[in-house]
Amino acid sequence: MNEEMDERQETQPVIEARRSTGIRQIPARLQECELNPNSEVTDDGDLVHLAFMAESEPVDVNSALKSEKWRCAMKEELNSI
User: Fold this and answer.
1) Among 17, 30, 35, 48, which residue has the fewest nearby CB atoms (within 10 Å)?
2) How far apart are CA 70 and CA 31, in angstroms?
3) Where do the record's region annotations for Disordered lie (predicted)?
4) Is 25 within the bounds of a domain?
5) Which of 80, 56, 50, 53 is nearest to 70 (CA)?
6) By residue range, what is the domain housing residue 66?
7) How far is 50 from 41, CA to CA, in rounded Å?
């Protein structure tokens, strides 16, 4: 039975993903803006979107325990159980 499955899998053609053939253009409203990829590091060595992560969740338990906000949230979670 496994041999039959292997034979079926081997005979299936590989289908490539369709790609757009249109020319990509920046919208007029963004022509004067400076665009950077999400993971770009600037010449100063700064991560471009680091500001968006400033108020994100703590990375580890010790960081969470230092924050009154997170200790309160953990207590609420435990009390809800």
Assistant:
1) 17
2) 42
3) 1-20
4) no
5) 56
6) 44-81
7) 10
21-37 pLDDT per residue, tens: 888 888 888 888 877 66
What was the pLDDT predicted at 54? 62
Q: Is residue 71 predicted with pLDDT exceeding 70?
A: yes
**Phi and psi angles of residue 47, each rounded to the nearest 5 degrees, phi first:** -70, 130
Looking up tokens 């924050």, which residue turns up?
Answer: 67
**How many angstroms separate the CA atoms of 30 and 24, rounded?**
13
Count of structural domains, the chain:
1
Domain assignment present for 52: yes
Is residue 57 in some structural domain?
yes
Name the nearest CA neighbour of 69 among 80, 79, 58: 58
Answer for the pair 38, 49: CB distance below 8 angstroms, yes or no: yes
Amino acid code (one letter) for 55 = E
